[in-house]
Design goal:
Layout: H1 15-34, H2 43-54, H3 60-71, H4 80-97, E1 107-108, E2 111-112, H5 114-117, H6 120-141, H7 145-159, H8 164-173, H9 181-195, H10 197-210, H11 215-247, H12 251-255, H13 261-265, H14 267-284, H15 293-304
Antiparallel strand pairs: 1-2
Helix pairs in contact: 2-6, 3-4, 3-10, 3-15, 4-6, 4-10, 6-7, 7-10, 8-9, 10-11, 11-14, 11-15, 14-15
Length: 307
């Protein structure tokens, strides 16, 4: 098993880095324990599921759930089941995104994608199993039935047709040629509010549910979550473009592949937009006071990340 990539890369000795390293260890250990094994699951399927989940990753969504729970006054351990379920759904989405019918990727995090390490049919089944297992985990591990039902509702909405899957369908359709820039930008934001943002929003909401947060705290968490998911996607687009520019003969060749924020706004304006969203996200946490400092740290890291 490869170690998860620590999200607080700027300073390995910083308090935030140490905090996250500890939580990442807890999350990875919990994921390793919970994933099915023989005889409950066929050996090849179990191996494919573990390959999908345990081959590294930043674990941003689980961290958001745990940090959100703490920011709302809860115990971090109360959000661990939600954190694992979120990562299982994220892993499923990557397995299916990598398939030949979608992105057709051979590598992820420097490792063969599941359909390359195993085969296409096994990858499809592994993704299906990870998705359904996430809901089993929530139902089994969250002792309070009201909280369990609320987390299941949040995750199912975020992962389904109105959320991540719907965003993927919209992304495949692309933007209309000749569409006015403002209209194209609004549509791109809508796509990514589903494709990327819905799971980020579910992450902070599920953390708040675990903490049994009041309405004021949940509103603050919501405003933060809506912005931070968009920040993550904008920075992803920027990093993709910078990589493409480094590999392509010209800027025009680099931006031709897919609709993105840099394509619509330009590189500099995309960076400015992401930074403004971070400020707004952090401002939204003001009602939570110092308990939300980890969420603020994470927001600032996400806009500065280089991978």
């Amino acid at each position: 098993m490869l170690p998860a990539t620590a999200p607080f890369a700027p300073s390995a000795t910083s308090d935030s880095a140490q905090y996250c390293a500890a939580r990442l260890g807890t999350i990875d250990a919990a994921l390793e324990r919970c994933l099915p094994r023989e005889p409950d699951c066929p050996a090849n399927l179990a191996a494919a599921m573990r390959h999908a989940v345990l081959s590294g990753g930043k674990r941003v969504r689980p961290l958001l759930a745990i940090m959100s729970c703490a920011a709302c006054g809860g115990e971090e351990g109360d959000a661990l089941a939600a954190a694992c379920a979120l990562e299982l759904v994220h892993a499923y989405s990557l397995v299916h995104d990598d398939l030949p019918a979608l992105d057709n990727d051979d590598l992820r995090r420097g490792q063969p994608t599941v359909h390359k390490a195993f085969d296409e049919a096994t990858a499809i089944l592994a993704g299906d199993a990870l998705l359904t297992f996430a809901f089993e985990l929530l139902a089994r591990e969250i002792s309070d039935p009201v909280s369990a039902a609320a987390c299941i509702l949040e995750l199912s909405k975020a992962a389904g047709a109105a959320g991540m899957v719907g965003g993927q369908a919209d992304d495949l359709a692309g933007l209309d040629d000749g569409e006015h820039r403002d209209d194209a930008l609004a549509r791109l934001e809508t796509i990514h509010a589903r494709k990327t943002g819905a799971l980020f929003l579910a992450s902070v909401r599920m953390g708040a549910i675990a903490a049994r947060a009041d309405d004021r705290a949940r509103r603050a968490i919501d405003e933060y979550g809506r912005r931070i998911g968009l920040v993550f996607q904008i920075v992803d687009d920027i990093l993709d473009l910078e990589q493409d520019i480094a590999q392509a003969a010209s800027h025009a060749e680099a931006v031709a592949a897919a609709p993105s924020f840099p394509e619509l706004l330009g590189l500099s304006d995309s960076q400015t937009y992401a930074q403004r969203l971070v400020v707004e996200a952090c401002d939204a946490l003001e009602p939570l006071g110092p308990r939300a400092e980890r969420l603020r740290d994470l927001a600032h890291f996400l806009v500065q990340r280089t991978e």
